[in-house]
Design goal:
The protein is 68% helix and 0% strand. With 80 residues, the chain is mainly alpha-helical. It has 2 domains: 1-42; 45-80, no CATH class. The protein starts with 10 loop residues before the first helix and ends with a helix. The mean pLDDT is 86.
Length: 80
Amino acid sequence: MKTLTVKNISDDLYDRLGKDAKANRRSLNQHVIFQLERLVLAGSATAAEDELADLDDFRESLGFTAYDADITEAKREGRP
């Protein structure tokens, strides 16, 4: 892995990154890497496909699947 040093970050940007990192339960370093990957790879079809595959894996790990139609039906069943 490579190391990158970023200099001359404004206090406002640093504070915002820190708050966002904390809200997402990441270290500042993890959050900056996450944001850079998101921005740099956003235009990549592969990145989007990877994210969808990760979401599918997560959904399968839950042991059940619920799609929009299933959720809508469950809501209707619970209403008079």
